[in-house]
Amino acid sequence: MSDPAPDLRSFLELVARTRRADYVEVTREVSPRYETAAILTALEAKRRSPLLVFRNVTGTHLPVVTNVGGSMGRLALALGCALPEVGARFEQAAAHRHPPVETTDAPVHEVVLRGSDVDLGFLPSLVYHADDTDRPYLTAAMVVARDPHSGVQNLSYHRMMIAGPTTTGIYMEPGRHLHGIHQAHVALGRPMPIAVVLGVHPAITLGALYAGRADEDEYEIIGGLLGQPLPVTRTVTGTNLLVPAAAEIVLEGAVSIDETIPEGPFGEFTGYGTGPTRTPVFHVEAITHRTQPYFQDIVSGNMEHLLLSLPALEHRTLRDARAVAPGVRRIALPAPLTAIVSLAKQDDDEPRRVIEALLGDIYAKHVIIVDADVDPSDLREVMVAIALQTQADTKVHVFPDRQGTPLDPSAPTERGRTAKMGIDATRPLAPARAVTRNRIPPEVLDSIDLAQVLGRK
Q1: Domain locations in the chain?
Q2: What is the 3-state secondary structure (H, E, C) of 219-266?
């Protein structure tokens, strides 16, 4: 018999029991306007990033949980592996998938609200940044939708602005899977049914962020990460969408194909807001939740927002780079929209091929290729490689008017069209002149006794 599927509550208990310094409960009353975000920001300024449970948030009876995935150590804990093995766990999950298993034993259906009982006002009214709109947001909203043509379900995370008791705006980036599913519903002339899941185990979040083909079911990746099928249950509104049976809260309804509302500004993962926009309207028809549910939150632009997507992005970047260059060794993602790739190249044109392959993604804007003996996570080594191996007129490649993300603050318009750049910082296979790298003979270097040199013996 397989173990019970982990949920948010079991993970909170695990962290509180095994990583006491990583678990902080705030029992005093805090404001949902800026204060929860301010507490986390102040902690991160002190190089601390604990999981936070706010027990007394003004205006709601729900405890607010934030920064669940705010450290790589906690993500490793959630996956049951050592910290250096997180990337490998994604490789294993993609290779050994477990389809979800349907169940009617669903804690998320302990409370079912429909009709006049539906009111988003029971949720915390969280506002994060001084220049954000005054409307509260759902930031840890995992959206479940089904492609009307293939029938495959899609899981993805989207910001949602609460606009009224039964409505939100939903931001969907062009070029991503949910936007494509919505466009398919537009072509069919009917609203897009969705379920919005709030409050899940971090392994579910990581699997939902998996970047695969549109015909891949992220629930199977989640099963691979868990090492067992995830129990799911059908929505109560008859849409036949499947949601995690042990989720804390689920909102069910449909996204309009012709109704939009002003949304934003909202400070995003880049650390910047990009002004107001218009987004489709999500009409909530039912709310289901566990008895005394937790409300899960992600403070936009802080550590959790950046870390949660890293394992999936690293897996995708490594996969796409190796598809065109088997000599790719490692990758690093040191900043938003930036990838550094170490490569044992087979020909001098290979770095450009890797650059072009990676820049096809909307979340890739700058790609740097270094040699295999350069650590891509060591920015000093990377900058030395750029300075000493790159001629700007031949090894810096600029691609104008490519599709990027509208969340890039430098993009000139809301459409997200942008210029992208690749830098080939690798040594030529056949140098034009003799160049050698400074090195001490290994036998001499190994013979040095630093303790004796420093007078400590």
Answers
A1: 8-302, 310-425
A2: HHHHHHHHCCCCEEEECCCCCCCEEECCCCEEEEEEEEEEEEEEECCC
Residues counted in the chain: 457
Q: Is 420 left (phi over 0), alpha (psi -120 to 50) or beta?
A: beta
Apex 314 CA angle, 313 and 317, nearest 5? 80
DSSP letter, residue 209: T
Instruction: Give the pairing type, strands 64-66 and 51-54.
Output: antiparallel
CA dihedral angle for residue 365, residue 371, residue 377, residue 378, rounded to 10 degrees: -120
Helix, strand counts (H, E) of the chain: 14, 21
CA–CA gap between residue 259 and residue 252 (Å, rounded) = 18
Contacts of 17 (CB under 8 A, 6+ apart): none
Q: Tell me the three state secondary structure of residue 18.
A: helix
306, two tokens = 């950046």
Token pair, residue 406, equals 């509208």
Average confidence (pLDDT) per 10 residues, the chain, 457 residues:
75 95 94 92 90 96 95 92 86 90 95 96 92 92 95 94 96 89 96 98 92 85 94 95 97 97 85 84 98 93 76 85 93 90 94 94 92 94 94 94 86 86 94 79 88 82
Place of tokens 């204060």: 35
Contact yes or no for 31/93 (Cβ under 8 A): no
**Strand order across the beta sheet in which 338-343 lies:** 328-335, 338-343, 366-371, 417-425, 396-403
Q: Using an 8 Å Cβ cutoff, are 100 and 229 in contact?
A: yes
Instruction: List the Cα angle 448/454/457 in 5-degree steps.
Output: 85
Structure-token pair, residue 163: 């606009």
Closest CA to 359 of 426, 421, 424: 421
pLDDT number for residue 4: 64
Sequence-distant (6+) residues with CB within 8 A of 117 are 287
What are 166's two structure tokens?
Answer: 């039964």
Q: Does domain 310-425 have CATH number 3.40.1670.10?
A: yes
The fold of 8-302 is Pnp Oxidase; Chain A (2.30.110)
Q: Is the peptide bond before 262 cis (omega within 30 degrees of 0)?
A: no
